[in-house]
Amino acid sequence: MRTLLNVVWLLFSGLWMALGYAVAGLVCFLLVVTVPWGIACFRIAAYALWPFGQRVVERPGAGVASGVGNVVWLVFAGIWLTLGHLTAGIGFFLTVIGIPFGIAHFKMIPVSLMPLGREIVPSDTAYPSYRWGTSR
C-alpha cells in the first residue's frame, strides 16, 4: 500500500515539490554561505519524492548552530514553505481520496519549518535508537 501511495503522490505532488526543493538547494549551494540550508533542501527533496514509510525525527547532537540556522531559515523560507504545505494539505483534504496526501503534506510541515537538526528515517524504525544515537 505504501508503494501505491508513493507512486500516486509522486504524480500529483511529489515530483513538483522535490524539483522546487532541489532548485532551492542549488541556489543555496551557489551562495556558498547557505550550503547547510542547501543540504537540508536536498534532504527534504528526497523526502518529498517518497514520503510514505518515512518520518522526521530530531537528530541527536544538533547544537546551538542548528537552532540559530533554523531561526534564519524560518524568517526567510520556513514560514512560506509551511503555508504552502498547509494550503496544499487542506486542498487535498477537501476530497476523500486526497486525505492521505493531505496528511503527507502536514507531515512535511515540521521539516520545512525548521530543517536543521532533523533526520528522515524509515517509519518502521524504533524512535529511541535514533534519539540516543545508536545504530539501526
Automatic annotation (TrEMBL):
Keywords carried by this UniProt record: Membrane, Transmembrane, Transmembrane helix
Top-level taxon in the UniProt lineage: Bacteria
GO cellular component, one term: plasma membrane
Keyword Ubl conjugation: no
Annotated signal peptide: none
Keyword Transmembrane among record annotations: yes
Record-linked InterPro entries: Inner_membrane_protein (IPR052937), UCP028777 (IPR031308), YccF (IPR005185)
Location of the Inner membrane component domain: 4-54, 68-118
TM helices/strands, residue ranges: 30-50, 62-81, 87-106
Protein name in UniProt: YccF domain-containing protein
UniProt source species: Streptomyces carminius
